[in-house]
Design brief:
The protein is α/β, with parallel strands linked by helices and about 350 residues long. About 55% of the residues lie in helices and about 15% in strands.
Length: about 350
């Protein structure tokens, strides 16, 4: 039995009683039959209570809870602080305003509470980032002004399921390149648990690896990790929820999902793509430079050998077929950037 159904029953009996009482009162004043009036208005009251009770009991509470869950802790704290400041200012002004002649003395103190409360919330929420940075970066000594002014502004970064399963996020966070707090919404964690409980062996292993990655991130103190209960009502897909939540929090999404990357960019949400980062930090070789490659397989063309660098870049070696499972020195002849990644073509380095 749901809470809403219980409130419907309570509302049905309460409004039924009020309807019967109102029917009896009307019948007494008009000289009509009180029994019939009480029954009719009682039934109307029961129907009214059964249908409309949730609209002013459980559903407003759910709406308020949904709003509070979608608001970040920083925004909520700033709003409450602004409300307190606004009410304090209104309280200081209420006494001199109450000395004004009637009716201004009775109305203006109440108006001041509304106006200063609203402006306090609005100003503190609009400048929450500046206030948060000010509190974090306040120098302990006057001599530290210059050093603290160059410190970065901390932010929140949303993690999606694919980047958690990928696992490289743990190594990236350990290096300290990610500045801010990593945020994992509860619906992402639920999707990860669903994958870990899958009957498919490969999906189950991927899900369990993602859970292990979260455990590593929680143990790593260099980059804070937070799991939040924030949710997006009315949206079912996890990727859509992430995009909406990122827009509400004004924070980027960390992912390696190409489709999510494109959808988020189309909606004005910044994306941090791990695959793009991996491609950006690969070694750059120019034609004419030499490298050492371990040839591990044959190429598609006759006589070609294929090897891989430490960062996974494919190297196609002309006439390298005869050097399988051997390390050779190769001179770069051409570098191609494809959708699948970077490919390097080379030939055997001439001796002497």
């Amino acid at each position: 039995m749901s809470v809403e159904f219980i409130f419907r029953l309570i509302g049905m009996f309460v409004f039924g009683f009020l309807g019967a009482y109102l029917g009896t009162y009307i019948a007494t004043t008009t000289g009509q039959s009180s029994t019939i009036a009480a029954i009719l208005l009682g039934l109307v009251g029961m129907l009214f209570g059964l249908i409309l009770t949730p609209y002013f009991t459980t559903r407003p509470v759910r709406a308020i809870r949904r709003i509070l869950l979608s608001v970040s802790t920083q925004t909520l704290t700033s709003g409450l602080t602004g409300l307190v400041v606004g009410l304090v200012i209104a309280a200081l002004l209420s006494f001199p305003l109450s000395l004004l002649p009637s009716p201004f003395g009775e109305i203006l103190p109440f108006v001041a509470v509304l106006v200063f409360g609203y402006f306090g919330i609005a100003i503190f929420v609009m400048r929450q980032t500046d206030l948060s940075s000010l509190m974090r970066l306040t120098p302990a000594h006057p001599s530290e002004d210059e050093s603290t002014s160059t410190q970065p502004t901390y932010r929140t970064v949303l993690l999606d399921t694919s980047v958690i399963i990928d696992g490289r996020i743990a190594d990236i966070a350990r290096t300290g390149f990610l500045v801010g707090t990593l945020l994992i919404p509860r619906f992402v964690l639920n999707e990860l648990q669903f994958i870990a409980d899958s009957s498919d062996n490969l999906r189950r292993q991927r899900g369990r690896r993602g859970i292990e990655v979260i455990s590593q991130l929680q143990k790593d103190t260099s980059t804070p990790l937070r799991i939040s209960d924030m949710d997006v009502e009315g949206v079912r897909e996890v990727d859509d929820k992430l995009v909406v939540l990122a827009r509400q929090l004004r924070c980027p999404i960390l992912t390696n999902d190409y489709n999510l990357n494109r959808i988020a960019e189309l909606q004005g949400v910044s994306v941090l793509n791990v695959n793009e980062l991996a491609n950006a930090v690969k070694l750059v070789f120019l034609p004419g430079e030499s490298m050492e490659v371990n040839v591990i397989q044959e190429g598609k063309e006759s006589g070609q050998g294929v090897g891989y660098l430490d960062d996974g870049t494919m190297v196609v070696v002309e006439d390298g077929r005869n050097y399988l499972n051997k390390k050779i020195y190769v001179t770069v002849t051409k570098v191609l950037q494809t959708a699948a990644g970077r490919m390097i073509f080379g030939r055997l380095e001439k001796e002497g």
